[in-house]
Amino acid sequence: MNTFELLIAAADGKAVVTEKKAGEIIGGVSIKRLRNLRSEGKELIPTMQIGGRRFVCITDLANFVDRQRSVANTAPSVVASHGKLNPANPSRRPVGRPKLSSKK
Q: From the centroid of its chain, how far is CA 34?
């Protein structure tokens, strides 16, 4: 089963879903967060307005999920040790909470 088929099943066979439902499908992103991103010009998923409501096409939602999956697969995994230099960028400050200096 591909992403599109899974999303059609999650959307009860509908071609478009409300923006709120789209946020729930992609992992619980709130409607407020989606609206804030859109107002900042950083829209995650293209929407269309019908009447006074915003809807997301299932194909756009499937493309978004596939893009996120490909980005996650190509990004290097960085596991930083507590208190050590960040291996992704050694010039940045150490990762983690600073240790207390021992005063005697």
A: 10
